[in-house]
Amino acid sequence: MTNDHLAALQSDHIAHLKAAYADILSRHGYDAVLISSGAAPVRYADDQAHHHHGYGHFLHWTGLAGVEHSWLLIERDGTARLWLHRPEDFWHATPDLPTGAWTNHIPVRGQHTVNPPEIAMPARMAVIGDPAQIAEAPGDPNPPTLLNALDEQRLIKTGYEIACIERANELAATGHQAAREAFLAGGSEFDINLAYQKATWQREAEAPYHSIIGLNDHAGILHYQHYDTAPPSVAQSLLIDAGVRYRGYCSDITRTTGTTDSPRFRALIEGMDQLQNRLCDAVAPGLEFAELHDRAHQGVAALLRSSGLVQGLDEGEMVRRGITRAFFPHGLGHSLGIQVHDVAGKPAPAPENAPFLRLTRRLEAGMVITIEPGLYFIPSLLNPILDSADGHAINHALVDELRPCGGIRIEDNVLVTRKGARNLTRPYLP
Predict the structure, then answer these.
(1) 411 assigned binding-site residue
(2) The model's pTM
(3) What is the pLDDT of residues 117-135, one digit of tens each?
(4) Cα(264)–Cα(321) distance, integer angstroms
């Protein structure tokens, strides 16, 4: 996609936001909304701050991740103005004023102060953002009904947003390929992380989330947060869950690789890949996502039976008895956009049989979601089943053989279209 085409899409995106905000502000009785970019909090008893990604509704308009102490004013007639914090500071680099085509639609001014701009503010105004940042700002702070409406209109992506998420997938795919090569070359988790960062040209602090890079049994820790600097004596598996942020938009991709030392585990990966592809193909408008999650459990049950991990029970019985939940404990996916777990995905509580499901909506065209089934060997979940009355149906010896491999997760980012779905990941990463 050319820069000119992306600029045209961004212009359409801003026009869409102006109309949407005008309607929402009118319906909720406001003349304007002032949006804070937010700022990184300083660590307790320290003078160092955490890395700042930016407030979602600010990024939705500007895409300026990492910008702090800046303010965006949106008025009911669609007028949008941005005040970018540009301190006189010899300790740090001062951000340049943006010059992209979108600034033709949103005038940008620099200001030294961290406070809201000193202009005549509309009388009926809301101010949204981190409560610590907006405490002294004029206006009604974070009105819940307005925030819910603004969250809701982020659910359906514009053409510009889809293009950004797809580009984030393309960039992340280069990192996943480099990570796989580093793993097969004998690299440690730390080595693999460095290979991913180098290939994506993205500092870890700028990534949409902390990359999950687990070798062997670490692949069975769902949000494994460390990087061992030494490789294991025998490497059997790699699970990498890592993304890229592009113009504020996120990708979220997971792949699992097994070595020739673990042929049964590699067969499970192949089975999971086939299941994941079927689930992606099943995405369509009108489908309840919880129903697709239930289909994933049926697929995991079929994989458990065909691999010999569970014997003597049919797929439905495995699901009803909770056996599949011991192997696949998390939800099938979530909404994706400016945030990795994007807003408005959970208007209703998760069903009782899927307590960790992050998306409880009926799918609509324009939504971007993740599809990420998994199968893990997690002692705290499997041991109670193995020791229960259902333990006889589980192949203990095979479980023990596969435990050192940790687990499998395969995750793609999928756009819901008017007639079905388009996978934004697979064109760049098999």
Answers:
(1) yes
(2) 0.97
(3) 999 999 999 999 999 999 9
(4) 25
